[in-house]
Amino acid sequence: MASMQSILETERFSIYYNTETRVLRLDWDGFFRSEEYRKHLDYALEVFKKYRLKKWVNNMKNMSVISLQDQEWTNNDWLGRVLEAGILQMVNVTSDDVFHQVSMRNIQNYANLCGLRWQNIDKLEKEYC
User: Fold this and answer.
1) At 17, is the secondary structure helix, strand, or coil?
2) Within 13 Å, how many C-alpha atoms sit on residue 43's CB side?
């Protein structure tokens, strides 16, 4: 099996993809200002479309709270573009941060209403590494 290829690696955020398994993985660490958060999600969406991937994985184990404004932006702007890109399933590694868990629950509830299948897992599974 081919391994994940790096597209972007910073100290707190990375994007990987695998054209064989057609998986995109984002690794988040810490708190992100709105500009960073939105830029990273928009860039990852372009990567997803460019490589015609099928599954999106957010490794948010070490991510902290998402601001209310960014939750609203995610729901009202970004998720619509996700669905237009053909993304039907997202897998999220659940953060240890309770405030992040509340943030993601708000986004997940809206995503489910829009028809996006959402799966939460506790740790990054081997198939996404």
Assistant:
1) strand
2) 16
Arithmetic mean of pLDDT over the chain: 92
> Which residues sit opposite 63 in a β-bridge?
30
Classify residue 115 by burial, with Cβ atoms within 10 Å: 0-12, 13-18, 19+. Answer: exposed
The residue type of 74 is: T
Question: Could you give the maximum distance between any two Cα atoms of the chain, in Å?
Answer: 40
The CATH number that applies at residue 62 is 3.30.750.24
Domain count, the chain: 1
Range of 44's domain?
A: 5-128
Signed CA dihedral, 58, 27, 56, 70: sign only:
positive
pTM: 0.91
pLDDT in tens, 101-115: 999 999 999 998 888
- At 7-54, the pLDDT tens digits run 999 999 999 999 888 999 999 999 999 999 999 999 999 999 999 999
CA distance 72 to 115: 17
| Both structure tokens of 89 | 């399933």
Rg of the Cα atoms in the chain:
13
